[in-house]
Design brief:
mainly alpha, 0% strand, elongated
Length: 66
């Protein structure tokens, strides 16, 4: 049920679009591609140790009191 105002004649266009499943699948594929590309580039330029160190917590800096 549609109510149209200010016109004696109106045209309503309804389009069928792709589902949200397609968008989520595309996001998953692109995300996987980017993660793979990032991992490959870091390993080839810096090495595996630097890749692992990116995800480690930095050592805490404790202030020594005198």
């Amino acid at each position: 049920m549609f109510t149209l105002y200010d016109s004696t004649k109106a045209k309503l266009n309804i389009y069928q679009v792709a589902s949200v499943t397609f968008d989520l699948l595309l996001l998953l594929v692109l995300g996987s591609y980017l993660i793979t590309l990032f991992t490959f580039l870091v390993i080839t330029t810096r090495g595996l140790d630097d890749l692992i160190s990116l995800f480690r917590r930095p050592p805490s800096r404790k202030v020594k009191t005198a």
